[in-house]
Amino acid sequence: MSTKFCVELSNDYEKLFETEIGYDVIIYAGEEPNIKEFHTHSNILCIRSEYFRSAFSNEWVEKQDGKFIFRKPNVAHHLFNVILRFIYCGKVELKDLQELDILKLLIAVDELNIQQLISHIQDYLIKNQTEFLRQNLTDVLEIIYQHETFTDLWNFCLEKICDDPKILFDSDKFIDLKAPLLELLLKRDNLNMNEIDVWESLLKWCFAQENMDNDPTKWNKDEITKVERLLHNFIPLIRFYDIEPTDFFYKVYNYKDILPQDLIHDLLEFHIVPNIKPKTSIAPSRKLNSQFDIDSTLIQSNHIPLFASWIDKEDSSYYNNKNIPYDFKLLYHSGRDGFSAESFHKNCNNKGATIWIAKIQGSTQLIGGYNPLDWNGNDVWKTTPDSFLFNFTDVKDLSTAKLGYVNDPHSAIYCVDYQGPQMGVLLCHGNNKWVNYDDNATCYPDIGIPNASNIPDFKVENYEVFQVIKNKNKK
């Protein structure tokens, strides 16, 4: 019978790394003035890294005074320390590293061909650094594109973009995207965008590359030629036949001088002649995710996975448009039903769990809350640890969201006939007068919702209430 002492073995090798006993390799990591010298052992490096194994077997490594010399100026010494510690004892700690350093570490371990660490770092980024990846999508995609081994990260980013293209296509960095990457994205059948939006995004990117005016009537011949060349590889990727006739006429046809003339002829024929079919084979329509065509004037479908994740107290990216376990049914809209408390309770009582959303007047700010119970009762406090408030400083930018779960479960929800929703001491009077008395963050955390200490009351342009229904067909 054999007994394994893996922990003791790992600790002993870590001591060997730290004491440097019998070392025969010197590694200089980093650039001046931040170079650090590491003393290591060739046999351990060869066993644990294919990069070092090739270096020693091919004898291209430098040797001085009986020691092998490696110089790695492209890897910061604090990151090389992480790599060597993993090589020696299989230990790696990423939580203390900055997000950008973790990405640099991934690039370094790819060069050293340490497969276990490549997989581990990708998994860590996907599970723990979703917001960083989201906010730096363009830069991250450029890096991933250059490294074939980053498949997990590549697939994750592509899925995020295809599910919610606005996080990239509406960002300021979209115009910095390299042409091959944009081409790969536009080839995707599951890119969740209407085709006219794809076309207009492509034009925006194109004009930014050439620093040109977007009015084709102002172009000279040289500018027309430049645009034609830039768009050449992209034109077959646009599903022009899926663009509505009105959009085609006003947003595509006016660029006829830069489009192939046979394409313009075929599209005109398609839109004018009844029942005619495209003459050439065309790419299939994109598989738009219409599962959550939310009935709202305040939010869009990409808000729904976020709400579902918060309801289940998971990370903000836990759900996407394909696996949301809830349906959201519009019960009340102040623009349709009025601001009266009577109308609110008529539409929302006896409906169980709800989420309300309000856009503060004269701003881009969207606030709201989740009530997992109901709005029934008169002059009743209801207890729950699961309610929360949220605040988007910019409704169009999901990254501006702030979330606050209830601090005092006994003051979570208050129901009374003569007012609208009340959570803690944030309440809506029946005449569109909203007040937040919780200036000490007693009931809910302070997440930037105006409170009475600086704004006595405020109004909203509209507010909506959705019934949250558990979908039995999904986990």
UniProtKB/TrEMBL annotation:
It holds the Pfam family TLD. Residues 23-96 form the BTB domain. InterPro entries: BTB-POZ/Galectin-3-binding, BTB/POZ_dom, SKP1/BTB/POZ_sf, TLDc_dom. This is BTB domain-containing protein. It comes from the Eukaryota. Transmembrane segments: none annotated. SMART domains: BTB, TLDc. Residues 297-469 form the TLDc domain. PROSITE patterns: BTB, TLDC.
